Amino acid sequence: MTTPENPNDVVASGTPGTDLTTHPERFTDPGMPEHQLRSTDTDPRAAKRAERTVIILFVLSILGAIGTIVAYVALPLTDDPSTVKAANLGLGLGLTISLLGIGFAAVHWAKTLMSDHEVAEKRKPVASSQEDRVAAVQALNDGVRDSGIGRRGVLKGAMISALALFPLTIAVPLVGNLGGDWKVSKFRHTIWSKGTRLAQDPSGRPIKAADVTIGSVFHVIPDGLREHSHWLEEKAKSIVLLVRIDERELKTTEKTKDWHYNGIVAYSKICTHVGCPVALYEQQTHHLLCPCHQSTFDVADGAKVVFGPAKRPLPQLPITVDDEGYLVAQADFDEPVGPSYWERLK
Fold it and tell me: From which residue to which does the signal peptide run (predicted)?
């Protein structure tokens, strides 16, 4: 092994005295790699095939946009849940085809027909001179010329049509509903009413107050729910969680002091954040947790929010007992259940 005379020198590749700590001021510019021509650059037939492919993709986008509008008109939403599925499917497929058509067409156009010559530019000052601005405009004009859009009229027409029609997939449903019925009133009320018995979910068996012990939890639906013509939709709004706690630990207001029965309280299971089912109850703290985003509500204190993104307490269902000892609702919820929406006042 050879030892360098100067300890600061590092021997590399077996050559003594090579100082790797010394760097050259400049490196040799390796230059641009050799440009590889594409088939569309050398074969006019390949370029024509690529152009037809781009046109077909834009036409698919146009058909998707038209299909979205047709689906919106031909598949109106009704109270039947099956129409919601059909409408969502039609609108979703139309939007997907329209967007993917534009995206794939743009990518294929750029890869096969636009100029792909490598260009290297030196760094320039942030403030461009007038000459640089003129050069930039010229570069843009060169790019338009290289794209071939000027001599490909059909392709240009397909692109403009696709881009012009796609906004209608959003504008038509929006404008069509500005003066229409968004059915927001359905969110304001449930089928709970005075005298409706509280029943276990899913059995539908009415619940007696004597069956509810301290610390117990019941998942509750309105009695006779399945007799409703749209019972699944109504269940989604009226589902309730019933809990009994020590009445001495219960905090009430002047408004809610009569909404419980011997410490038995009922709250909507629909989280006021984004509508997930709130059903994880911690008996020691009386906290109710939403599993989706960890919003936490205090059952002993009007289901107020103690943690998480939810901004409002869970709506409380006022309850009492009937002559037979069954738990019944005093009325519907005093406010809409679930997340906020644009016409909600609180």
Answer: none
Q: Which of 67-76, 114-123, 152-161, 274-283 has the weakest average pLDDT?
A: 114-123
- DSSP of 168-197: HHHHHHHHHHHSS---GGGGT--S--TTPB
pLDDT band, residue 8 (cuts 50/70/90): very low
pLDDT at 174: 67
Question: Model confidence at 332, in pLDDT bands (50, 70, 90)?
Answer: very high
Q: Give me the half-sphere count of Cα atoms (radius 13 Å) on the Cβ side of residue 154.
A: 10
The pTM score is 0.53
**Can you tell me whether residue 284 is helix, strand or coil?**
coil
Contact by Cβ (8 Å): 96, 69: no
The partner residues of 243 in beta bridges, in order of sequence, read: 217, 265
Distances (CA, A) of 130 to 123, 136, 332: 16, 10, 71
d(CA 67, CA 71): 6
Kind of pairing, strands 296-298 and 280-282?
unpaired
HSE toward the beta carbon, residue 53, CA cutoff 13 A: 18
Residue bearing tokens 């309105």? 222
